[in-house]
Amino acid sequence: MKNIVLIGFMGTGKTSTGRLLAGRLNRPFIDVDKKIEHETGLAISDIFQLYGEDHFRQIEREVISRVARYTNTVIATGGGVVLKQENMVRLKNTGVIVSLMASLEIILERTARPGIRPLLDCEDRAERVAKLFQDRASLYMKADYTIDTSCMSPQQVTERIIVFLREGGHLRGRS
Length: 175
Ligand code: S3P
What we know:
Elements: E1 3-8, H1 14-25, E2 29-31, H2 32-40, H3 44-51, H4 53-67, E3 74-76, H5 85-94, E4 95-101, H6 104-110, H7 125-140, E5 145-148, H8 154-167
Parallel strand pairs: 1-3, 1-4, 2-3, 4-5
Helix pairs in contact: 1-8, 2-4, 3-4, 4-5
The protein binds shikimate-3-phosphate.
């Protein structure tokens, strides 16, 4: 069975939805950022601070190349995974790609806690979010299924994804 891969901007609910989805489908769950933190022994923010974004992207690329070989797993990715086309080619080869979207206002609300997302630790968060979102929007739209999570709980998003997967024949009658 193919993996189910959640992509989307920071604050769109990939981790919480992924965990719920994996539970509902009785599949393993992998959060790529958590895996990177576990394997390096460093918080994502520390990797950015100590080694810079490019280094983080190399680690991310390497971890993606491994998790893309899994099967039957729900995979929550970091928001920047779409920046490298090879990440998406690999993930797409073995998985169904589901993109979680949200309005800029909601993203700002959900990412307000400082110290967690290094790209948003800056003076004008609104401006940064708008710029990054604009740069990436077309990449997030390349998914097999896109869902606006702005007014939905992770539970509702999960149920909606399950309907899509069932209707698309991706669950083969399971769940
Ligand atoms: C990033 C998103 C983060 C994390 C890193 C970079 C991005 O993950 O991978 O801070 O470039 O959008 P979340 O989307 O889970 O916050």
